[in-house]
Amino acid sequence: xxxxxxxxxxxxxxxxxxxxxxxxxxxxxxxxxxxxxxxxxxxxxxxxxxxxxxxxxxxxxxxxxxxxxxxxxxxxxxxxxxxxxxxxxxxxxxxxxxxxxxxxxxxxxxxxxxxxxxxxxxxxxxxxxxxxxxxxxxxxxxxxxxxxxxxxxxxxxxxxxxxxxxxxxxxxxxxxxxxxxxxxxxxxxxxxxxxxxxxxxxxxxxxxxxxxxxxxxxxxxxxxxxxxxxxxxxxxxxxxxxxxxxxxxxxxxxxxxxxxxxxxxxxxxxxxxxxxxxxxxxxxxxxxxxxxxxxxxxxxxxxxxxxxxxxxxxxxxxxxxxxxx
Length: 325
Ligand SMILES: Nc1nc2c(ncn2[C@@H]2O[C@H](COP(=O)(O)OP(=O)(O)O)[C@@H](O)[C@H]2O)c(=O)[nH]1
Ligand SMILES: [Mg+2]
Known about the structure:
Rossmann fold; binds guanosine-5'-diphosphate; alpha/beta
């Protein structure tokens, strides 16, 4: 039996597909349920809608309550990078230029903005950039700082052409400090201890195509020296420098696994981190390898081809490893 869906239902469904935060999605699902024609042909769809509504409500209650509803972004790729910055710095534009994601459109019927993830390609890796509402002294939803805290690193986006470029950033840093988040250009992914989250951070000087941006860039350089400040403009289309900076801040080490007599698949690196050892790698490949590892051979720069290595040997970017058990 055909479902004979009404235009109201289709509109609600379309809105659901575009809605990004759970509360907005819930409203859409309820609208879909109320407008779906009630007959035998739609019974399964009705049941499915009810199930989705129940699940969503449960999630909102569990994590919601006092703190407002929970918003999370499932991590994908080699690192999750939160886009952090004052209003109007160019965060959403950066996401649109460098990834295939589309930042939130203005005619969204719900005022609560949602995080928008997009994947930035760098060599054989992808980084997940997450666009966020601005960090400002006005009310911020708790989930904004939750997402920043939970990310692997931050991209601090400055409007280099703004006359108050530096004060804007200082304010962002202060607001986050109150929330016990330190954007730290020297932090390493593993080094986090204590109550303050030290987030590895890349500083980006945006809108470099505009007048006055060169001065902003100089101010940023002296403020964050010796850390690198990455120049960026939406008019450019080479993002390798940005990718390189994110790669470095996340202390990523790419390791390739190979079987005896075969070449490694260089398009699929294992993403490890500086300080990780052979044993860490074996664990990631398979828990059997970690338990029963007899020996391993490595091919890489500064090593003899096929040289045997110890379990506590630190990995280096580009290492090709043959595990034997
Ligand atoms: N000239 C120029 N304008 C930019 C650039 N990036 C963003 N903008 C403009 O700056 C304004 C704010 O950008 P938006 O991405 O919405 O900032 P957000 O609030 O940080 O997300 C918009 O009018 C953009 O068109 C850039 O690289 N060059
Ligand atoms: Mg924006």
